């Protein structure tokens, strides 16, 4: 039925959320309450939890070390990036998951459309797996540690010639060391468990993708919608600033920061989040321009609504289809960027990310290819899954685009 095919671009969000006569929506109040709770926990962690913990080697420095969370024998200390990641998940839940729950008819329509695309469903399952294991895995799995006694152990079902100076943990058959379940994906040249590194790398990838995308989408959406609605001089000034920032060499700035402060995943995420929103701003602006000419926007203007309310409650929600599909392109872009920088030796070598592991194994490809291939395959399938999911979301959220392309 026609009513079942209601999309983001046709939804009266004020009616759904019950905010027709209110400036603050339930979604914003939930975000505000969740943010306040995160700030309280972060303040407690900063002022009352003391000491320093190096998860990479499992050592604590200072006699008063207490991890933020102490689980089954080892501590998990929450970092600045973890707090930003938690906030990005809160924002995602308040303005993506909750709106779908508030409109079950629209959600069921999207789900039916998604189920028709089998590659997208497989991709969704893979990304859920990566997300769950990435978030929960490091909490219950010890951080990877170097152990030269087990260096270059092959993965399960593979073997390596014992002519190389290694101590074989598994059985030796015909002079070849066999892989074991103790190290299902093998070990690196310094004896770190590749399975543990990949699990921790899932969390790193999710943090990079969610936090950097949060920054880009927030700034890009604000600039794009304001420029489209205000028009005139405001539009001209904002778009010329976008042109200036697009011509700015972000890579050179990153190298300068790398030279001054050293490699840091936090600086990488913040820097590229702050200097990569220009494309999103233009994309959102092009879609918002069409919405500003709709009759319902003119009706809201005649009702005396403020500019802030029109942009927040009508322009932004009704350009959600372009924003959501853009997210599926931004997340893999940032994940791949970190891997590229790590491979070039420009990343933080102290973090257990997929890119760092790929770079660590490039000199051992001749006799230990699994060190590079294992994280490389996880990176490849994750990027591919985002692309499949993005295409499916675009077809579901914007059927007109699919019809025009046929």
UniProtKB/TrEMBL annotation:
<feature type="transmembrane region" description="Helical">
    <location>
        <begin position="28"/>
        <end position="49"/>
    </location>
</feature>
<dbReference type="InterPro" id="IPR025966">
    <property type="entry name" value="OppC_N"/>
</dbReference>
<dbReference type="InterPro" id="IPR050366">
    <property type="entry name" value="BP-dependent_transpt_permease"/>
</dbReference>
<keyword id="KW-0472">Membrane</keyword>
<feature type="transmembrane region" description="Helical">
    <location>
        <begin position="251"/>
        <end position="277"/>
    </location>
</feature>
<dbReference type="InterPro" id="IPR035906">
    <property type="entry name" value="MetI-like_sf"/>
</dbReference>
<feature type="transmembrane region" description="Helical">
    <location>
        <begin position="208"/>
        <end position="230"/>
    </location>
</feature>
<comment type="similarity">
    <text>Belongs to the binding-protein-dependent transport system permease family.</text>
</comment>
<dbReference type="GO" id="GO:0005886">
    <property type="term" value="C:plasma membrane"/>
</dbReference>
<dbReference type="GO" id="GO:0055085">
    <property type="term" value="P:transmembrane transport"/>
</dbReference>
<protein>
    <submittedName>
        <fullName>Peptide/nickel transport system permease protein</fullName>
    </submittedName>
</protein>
<feature type="domain" description="ABC transmembrane type-1">
    <location>
        <begin position="202"/>
        <end position="390"/>
    </location>
</feature>
<dbReference type="InterPro" id="IPR000515">
    <property type="entry name" value="MetI-like"/>
</dbReference>
<keyword id="KW-1003">Cell membrane</keyword>
<keyword id="KW-0812">Transmembrane</keyword>
<feature type="transmembrane region" description="Helical">
    <location>
        <begin position="122"/>
        <end position="143"/>
    </location>
</feature>
<keyword id="KW-1133">Transmembrane helix</keyword>
<feature type="transmembrane region" description="Helical">
    <location>
        <begin position="83"/>
        <end position="101"/>
    </location>
</feature>
<keyword id="KW-0813">Transport</keyword>
<feature type="transmembrane region" description="Helical">
    <location>
        <begin position="367"/>
        <end position="389"/>
    </location>
</feature>
<dbReference type="Pfam" id="PF00528">
    <property type="entry name" value="BPD_transp_1"/>
</dbReference>
<dbReference type="Pfam" id="PF12911">
    <property type="entry name" value="OppC_N"/>
</dbReference>
